[in-house]
Amino acid sequence: MNPATQAEVDEALATAVAAGATLLKPAQKVEWGGYSGYFADPDGHAREVAYHPFWPLNEAGLPELSGAVRGQVDQPTYADGCRCGDTQ
C-alpha cells in the first residue's frame, strides 16, 4: 500500500489494527527517505504501508514510474555490451 502522505501511513496502520491485524513495526522514517510500517493481516501475512516522497502517485493512486523504468532514459551498458532491460 502506497499512501500519499505520512499521516495516511499512520491512519492505514491504525485502521488495519482496528480490523484485527497485528502491528509488526510502527511507522517510522526510513533510510531511503520515506516513511513506512508493517502489519500482519489476520492470516499472518506481513504487509507494508509506505509513503515514498520521491515516487509520486497518479490520479488512480498508483505510483508513477521514473523515466529510467519506462525506458525513456539511457540505460547503462555493461562490459559485455548488454544494456539494462535487454532481452536475449
Automatic annotation (TrEMBL):
It comes from the Bacteria. PROSITE patterns: VOC. Residues 1-52 form the VOC domain. Pfam families: Glyoxalase (PF00903). InterPro entries: Glyas_Bleomycin-R_OHBP_Dase, Glyas_Fos-R_dOase_dom, VOC_core. SUPFAM superfamilies: Glyoxalase/Bleomycin resistance protein/Dihydroxybiphenyl dioxygenase. Coiled coil: none annotated. This is VOC domain-containing protein. The lineage of its organism: Bacteria, Bacillati, Actinomycetota, Actinomycetes, Micromonosporales.
